Amino acid sequence: MSSQKKIVIVGGGIVGLCSAYFLQLQGHEVHVVEKNDFGNGCSSGNAGMVVPSHFIPLAAPGTMKLAMKWMFNPESPFTVKPRLDREFWDWSWQFYRSATAKHVKQSGPLLMELNTKSRALYQEFSSFLPFDFQQKGLFMLCKTDQGFKEEQEVAHQAQTLGMEARVLSREEAQRMEPGVELDIAGAVYFPLDAHLTPPTFLKSLYQHLKNQGVVFHQQQTITGIQYNKRQVTSLVSADQHFEADEFIIASGAWSSALVKDLQAHIPMLAGKGYSFMLKTPSVTPSICAIMTEARVTLTPMQQGIRFAGTMEMVGLDQRINQRRLQGIYKAIPQYYPQFGAQHFSSAPVWSGLRPCSPDGLPYVGRLGHYDNLTVATGHAMMGLSLGPITGKLISQVVADETPEVDLTLLHPDRFYRKRKSAYA
C-alpha cells in the first residue's frame, strides 16, 4: 500500500465518488471538487443500468452507416453537428479508424470484464449502502425481424465470450413480463445485467464518504491547472487553490478542456442524452429494457419508470431539443402499447452530457508525462455501469500497484502515441 497522500478529485459524479471511496479505503486524505451541487450531473439522470452485456464499443462496424442514415432525421436517436474546429475532425477521424471488427474483437472481452467486475462491486456496495440494486437482467426488445436477427448475432457473440444470453420469442418474453403488454418480434435476455436508481445510490455513497472523512467542495469550477515540470502542483478555481500530492480528473465531458493547460490531448466529444420519469404508471415492467431499433431505454426505479435515449453530438450544449424528445415519445408505444405520448407530456425532462472517446473505451490511467495526474473519463453511456471498477482501478494506479485489469487499451495517451509513432 502507498503512503498516505492528499488527493484532489475533480468531478463528483459516479466515477469521482467511486474513486474517492477506494482511495479513502487506502487511508488517503481525499477531497472532491464539483462545479455544481453534488448529485446533479450526468450520473444522476442516466438509465441506471449495469450492463455486462454491453461489450460492443460505440466505435463498431456499421456505426458510421447508421449515423449517416439518422443524421438528417430530426427525430432520430442520433445526430452529429459538424464543427470547423480541429478537435471535432480529429475525433471523427479516430472514430472512423476505430470502427472495425478488429477493434471490437480486442475491446469486447475487456468491456465485458470491466462491467462484470463493476457488477460484483455493486453487490458489495449493496451490503452496506441503502440503495435498490435489482439483479433482474436486461431485455433487448426487437420490433422488427431484421432487428431481432441482428440482436441474435450479438447474443451469439456474447455466448462465445462466455456470457449467458437467451434468445426469446415474443411469447417467451411476454411470459417473463406478464404485467405489461409487449409488441415485439422477439427479444434477447441477458440475465447477468442489473439496474438501480442512480440518485439514491449517489446520495447514499456521498453520505457514506462524508461520514468517512472525505471533504467535498461544491460550486467550484476549476479554471486552471498549475504545474512544475513533471508535477501538477494545484488546481485553480475562481476563489481557491487546491493543492495536493495526487490529482484525479473525473469531470466527464469537461475533462478534455480541463487538461489543455497541460498541453495534453484527450479526444472527447460530448454526447447529449435525455431522460424523464413516469411517476404513476398504469403498469410497471419489472425488467429493464432497451428498445433496440429506437435506442430508447426503460428502467423501473423507486420513483417510477425512467425512459432515456438519444445521442446528440452537439458540443457542451444541454438545451433540450423537442424534436429529439418527440422521437422518444413516439418510439415507446411501438414496443409498450399501454404507454402513449400523452403519458409523458407533463414529465420534466433531464438532459446530460456523456463523455465519448473516439474508440468507445474510457480513459483510465496516468496522463502524459505527469507523475501525479490520473484521468478517469470517457465512459460514454456506461459511466454508471463502469463507475465502481474505474474507481478501484484508479486507486491501484495511485498506489503504484499493478491494476487488476490490463489498462493498455484504456491509456489516456493512446491516440497521441499512435499519432507520434505514425510520424516517427
Automatic annotation (TrEMBL):
Keyword Transmembrane among record annotations: yes
Range of residues in the leader sequence: none
SUPFAM superfamilies: FAD-linked reductases, C-terminal domain (SSF54373), FAD/NAD(P)-binding domain (SSF51905)
TM stretches of this protein: 7-25
FAD dependent oxidoreductase domain boundaries: 6-396
Source taxonomy: Bacteria, Pseudomonadati, Bacteroidota, Cytophagia, Cytophagales
MF terms (GO), sorted A to Z: oxidoreductase activity
Protein keywords: Membrane, Oxidoreductase, Transmembrane, Transmembrane helix
Record protein name field: FAD-dependent oxidoreductase
Gene3D superfamilies attached to this UniProt entry: D-Amino Acid Oxidase, subunit A, domain 2 (3.30.9.10), FAD/NAD(P)-binding domain (3.50.50.60)
One Gene Ontology CC term in the entry: cytoplasm
